[in-house]
Specification:
This protein has 350 residues and is an alpha/beta fold. 48% of the residues lie in helices and 16% in strands. InterPro entries: DctP_fam (IPR018389), TRAP_DctP_sf (IPR038404).
């Protein structure tokens, strides 16, 4: 009997508290967010996760975010746009190349040869932002909030090289078809190998060279089985942040403005941090100081020549744009023309 009275009293008190503070109960907003995989390293760990874990503080909004790295969710990184469209999550740290099969338009952000360095990558991202935003809203009811880079994907070789053209006759580990076509263009033999298998493939001579970011190469021990690194970016490994239109439209205009400003601040920070990590990893791989984020090795750091720059930029018109345009125009008529009118001018292409 006493327990029932206590329960009734508790229920009455709870109801009274709810009625007394309806605004407080309604002011807090809860969002669910998909993050980058834990395995992607320091950007996820030191920039992305802290931002989401302190979301209300970072944005100045009454929003609490349930943030989960995608490799802890049981969701494939190729399915991000689908689960967002289905309404299962509110915010996504979008992996661009992985989701380009579902929406080829977004790969126009990171064509092989278009962004060999950070400055160019930033120009491309800014020029193409509105095109991707409009397409994602139309097809997936998702709004783009920001674009950021993991950083240039560069060349590692176990044979001496002095320039990019020296890969002629060599077997090169690649991770997508556009990259394979470019390696063929410069006379190399592209070999598709998973990242996890690349160290062994280099060690056994299955491949002579391989492409990834310098920080990833360092953590995976590639400098143990290679001798040279050429720090020219084949791709910038660009990614983005996006929010479902349902979540976006649930916010008032002033809240939307605050959220947009916060994500612009986050992506600006990641652009700077990514470049710092890139340079630090290059130093570590070559055994130089400062080296604060990785293990020191003794790779030869091959200077990037003007001819290398010309060669990598030629990939856009000779390989990556034609291959991508054919696929993109099939699913999104006028896709490649839109790229030519927005991105091509900042690259000096006609």
């Amino acid at each position: 009997m006493r327990f029932r009275l206590l329960l009734a009293a508790f229920a009455a008190a709870t109801l009274a508290a709810t009625l007394a503070f309806p605004a407080a109960a309604q002011e807090r907003i809860k969002f669910k967010a998909i993050g980058q995989p834990l395995a992607t390293g320091l950007i996820q760990k030191n920039r992305e996760q802290p931002f989401f874990e302190h979301f209300a503080e970072k944005t100045g909004l009454p929003i609490d975010v349930d943030y989960k790295p995608i490799d802890t969710l049981g969701v494939k990184d190729t399915e991000q746009l689908r689960v967002m469209k289905a309404g299962l999550f509110d915010i996504v740290s979008l992996r661009v190349s992985q989701n380009s099969r579902d929406e080829p338009t977004i790969l126009g952000l990171d064509l092989v040869g278009a962004s060999p360095d950070y400055a160019t990558g930033r120009k491309v991202a800014n020029a193409y932002f509105d095109t991707i935003d409009a397409r994602l809203q139309q097809q997936f009811k998702v709004k783009l909030l920001g674009v950021w880079p993991f950083g240039p994907q560069i060349l590692f070789c176990k044979k001496p090289i002095a320039k990019l053209a020296d890969v002629k006759g060599m077997k090169v580990r690649v991770y997508d078809q556009n990259l394979a076509k470019f390696i063929e263009l410069v006379g190399g033999t592209p070999v598709p190998v998973s990242f996890a298998d690349t160290h062994q493939s280099l060690s056994l001579g299955v491949v002579d060279c391989a492409i990834t970011g310098p920080s990833s190469a360092n953590s995976a021990g590639w400098p143990e089985v290679t001798t040279h690194q050429l720090p020219i970016g084949f791709q910038m490994a660009l990614n983005g942040y996006a929010i479902s239109m349902k979540a976006w439209n649930s916010l008032k205009p002033d809240q939307q403005a605050k959220l947009k400003t916060a994500f612009e601040g986050l992506t600006d920070d990641i652009w700077k941090y990514s470049e710092e990590l890139f340079q630090d990893a290059l130093n570590c791989n070559a055994g130089k100081d400062p080296c604060t984020t990785g293990k020191k090795f003794k790779l030869v750091n091959v200077p990037v020549t003007a001819a290398d720059g010309d060669l990598i930029r030629s990939a856009v018109t000779k390989v990556s744009l034609p291959v991508w345009a054919e696929v993109c125009d099939k699913s999104n008529p006028g896709c490649s023309q839109k790229w030519r009118s927005t991105v091509a001018p900042v690259l000096g292409l006609k």
